[in-house]
Amino acid sequence: MRLVWRTEWPHWLLMAVLLIVLLWTPEQVIPIHWNLAGRADGFGSKWVAFVFVVGMYALFLVLPRFDPSRANYAQFAGAYNLVRFALLVMLVVLLGGGALGLQSAGLLYLLVGGLLVVTGSVLGKLRPNWFCGVRTPWTLSSKRSWVKTHRLGGWLMIALGLAEIAAGALDPSSGGQILLVGGGGVVVVTVAYSYIVWRDDPDRQSAVSTRPAD
């Protein structure tokens, strides 16, 4: 994926806003970790946190360059960029809000739920690659398994995200349990489903192709 101004400037703007907030606030230590109850239980230097955010942005920006199936990214560049941006929004709001003293379990699970909804809404657009999506031996060796598993996984992630948003708004204390149980359920269902579809696919392969998918 190439670095394109029109897709990257929103990311740069978010990181600039976070930098301004961190420069403006006198606190040198901010929340950087939260437990399942949504309460901050880990604190660290705000500058280490900022470097982490920039590092995450850089990692997801360059990751496709190291993917043997990198040619496929052109087919879902919009979806990939949207997920990258949603993740950055969550990190900036959490860390910037922590620096400003604005933190709550409700906010945490609203953000997590929003990220899950955004990711689920575009999951079905992903094409075979080695870094993003539901990567099982069966999705990576069957186009049918990849497509069907990601469509199902997308709907499941949206449902889980909506449940997290509801928990964040109505009962933040349940957000962690919903995320843990629901997330585990999504993993189990999608992995099992990927095998079932692969088993019935007459065109399955022994290894995933590195050519762009149709």
Describe the structure.
The chain starts with a helix and ends in a 15-residue tail after the last helix. A two-stranded antiparallel sheet has the order 1-2. It has one domain (5-199). It is mainly α and 214 residues long. Residues 208-212 have low confidence and may be disordered. The chain is globular. Helices cover 62% and strands 6% of the residues.
Strand order of the largest sheet: 1-2
Q: For the terminal residues, how far apart are their CA atoms?
A: 18 Å
Question: Please, how many helices?
Answer: 6
- The level of helicity is 55-70%
Content-based structural category: mainly alpha
Radius of gyration: 19 Å
Provide the domain count.
Answer: 1
Order of helices and strands: HEEHHHHH
Shape: globular
* Main sheet characteristics: 2 strands, antiparallel
Number of strands: 2
Model regions low in confidence, pLDDT < 50 over at least 5 residues:
208-212
The residue-averaged pLDDT reads 90
Percentage of residues in strands = 5-15%
